[in-house]
Structure formats: structure tokens, C-alpha cells
Amino acid sequence: MRVYVERKGWSDDSEDEKDLSTPQSDPGDNWQRQMPVILAEGTFEGQLNDLMFGTVNPTQEIMRVKASYVKDYSDGAVLANIIVPTTEDPFRSVSVKWTQINLPLNQTGLIQNRHFVCLEATGILHFANGDRVGYQLLHSIEFPETRPTPGTIRAKHRAIGFYRQIAPNVIDTFVFDTVHPGGKVFRSVVLDASAKALLSTNNYVICGQTKKLTWRLQHRQAETRVNRHRSRTLSVLGGNRLCTVCSRNLAPGSFGLPRVGALGKSNCKLCMNPVCHKCKRPKAISFLTPDGKLLRHKIAFCVMCISEVTKMDALPAACDQAEGYQAYNVMASLSGSDVLSDDFDC
Question: Helices 228-237 and 201-226: crossing angle, nearest 10°?
């Protein structure tokens, strides 16, 4: 992807910092004409349904999970839902959201963090020629109930992105953003934050794929409970001691000592088969505890299960999410996995 910045109306001289803000009393949308337009376009790998599954976040819980993967904001909340996803159209949503971005050097007092109140809309457009184009719109709005939060500055921005599948695993994207920082701030800080937000678009694909993985984990746990007796029988018999991918022997060697190839072995959390360290793919998965705390667990999978989930269509998982399926609740079976972080901005 490539990022372009409009030059008109901006000075390269840092002494003009005072000119980077417009009066808060400016009526209407005058701020949009004062700020540069930042454009990102190009292609990246992925499936459109994965991208849209990573984009849509109608609840605060899903919003927090998304932020842990995309890293597009530091805090946020859903203020109101206008259109919620349905099983017939699981990627369509319209909501009002509050988000906060923690800027570099904010702890020094030189720069204050920014927060936004935006109308967000997502969905997929269907054209007569069969093309499907995903979109995400963000537009700052103002109304009396959304008062500025202490210690931060209310900023504004308008962004819209369009995404189209042009090849089996290639997405074409066109995204632009216009930002009003809401106060004095260096040009480089505004442009850097905006450019990073636009370049994080491909993280939506990663988010969608990881959410599919989480969805499969939850379904696998339900299947495991049903087949618990069978699993115990296999455990008593010793089970499979070969790597499910490369068939490496993972059984203890002479004198009961572990073989070199068995060092770092694990069990894939999806297929539950043993996997050697070379065929193991640890993934950081975000979950929510019953009290709403965000945890990231490092979970082991085999390469075959990762490949299977990556190729799987995200539509069934998105439909389950639209019905309220709690795919991101922490599972008891993961109690032994590594906890990476419990921060929102992880």
C-alpha cells in the first residue's frame, strides 16, 4: 500500500504550529477544508469477508477485541447502535462510537491525547456486474450528550475506505482520511498518526482471521464436552505420540528422557493432536473474562488447522456474531495457556 498527503494549505516550517488548528467556533464542516487529505491505496493479501468480519464491531466487547488486533485506538465505547448486524446482512452496521488515541509524548505534557465521537457505518455493496465492495465510513459528529473528557482534546476526522476482491487472495483498497487535531500539534504528529491508521487496514484481515480461529475454538470446546468420555479413553490408551503434521516421534526416548524432536511439543487446541515445535504455530488470542477484562492468551495450533481456518469463509462466524454468540469469552480449557497481556491497548 502507498500513502499520499495533500500539500496545499500546510507549511513545512514547524514555527507555523499555531496555524494547524482552526477555531472551535467555526460553523459547519469548515474544518474539513482546513486539513490535508491523506490517501492510501494499493493491494494486500486477504479475503474480503475476513476483512469485513474484522471491521464490524457492534458491541463494546467486540470493539475491544478488535482494537487488540488492529491497534487503531487506545480506548473506546459504543454510545448507540442505529443499525445492528443481522444473519441476513452480518457486515452491515451503523453506530455512534467514542474512541481515544494516545499520542507519542503525551506523558511529557507537551501533547495531549485525542478523542473522537464518530458515526461509523460498515457493510458490503453489491453491484449489477457481481462485484462486492466493502466499505467503512467514519464521520465526526457533535451533540450535547457527548461532552469532552478531562485531560484529552476533542478532535475530528472523516474517513472512508472501499475494499474489493480482485483476485482469490488479493484485496484492492482505497482509503482517505481528513483529520482536525482540535488544537496545536506538530504537523508530523498528525500525519504520522493518520498514516498509521490507514496502513492498519490490512490488520482488519488479521483480525477477521483470528476471530474465526476464536470462533472455531469455542465450537471445538463444545464438541470436546460432548466427546469427553472418548477423549478420556484415548488418554488411558496412550493416544497418538506422533506429530500430526510431520509424523515425528514425540514419545519419550531411552531411560524416559524426551527426544530432541519432542522438545517444545504441544497439543493443537483445535484438533487436539500432538504437534512438534517445528509444526506448532502459537497465536495470541484475545478473550474477555466474565467481569469484562481483556486477556490475551498464547495458544498452540498446528499448521494444518491454521491453514484450514484461514481458508474458511468468515460468513458463518459473522452470522453467529450477529446472533449474539459469545465467541470471545475466556474458556476454562485455556487456563494453562500463557497470558500475554490484560491491557486494552495490547
Answer: 80
Cβ–Cβ under 8 Å, residues 49 and 315: yes
Range of the structural domain that residue 329 is part of: 211-341
Asked if residue 277 and residue 173 are part of one domain, the reply reads no
Higher pLDDT, 107 or 38: 38
Domain-embedded: residue 232: yes
The answer on pLDDT for 22 being more than 70 is: no
Task: Note whether 181 and 219 are same-domain residues.
Answer: no
Give the span between the Cα atoms of 136 and 123, in whole angstroms.
7
HSE-up of residue 87 (Cα within 13 Å, Cβ side): 5
Q: Determine the Cα–Cα distance for residues 36 and 191; give it in Å rounded to an integer.
A: 9
Distances (CA, A) of 193 to 72, 73, 114, 239: 9, 10, 11, 52
Q: Read off the pLDDT of residues 289-337 as tens digits, 9 standing for 90 and up.
A: 888 788 888 999 999 999 999 999 999 999 999 998 777 776 655 544 5
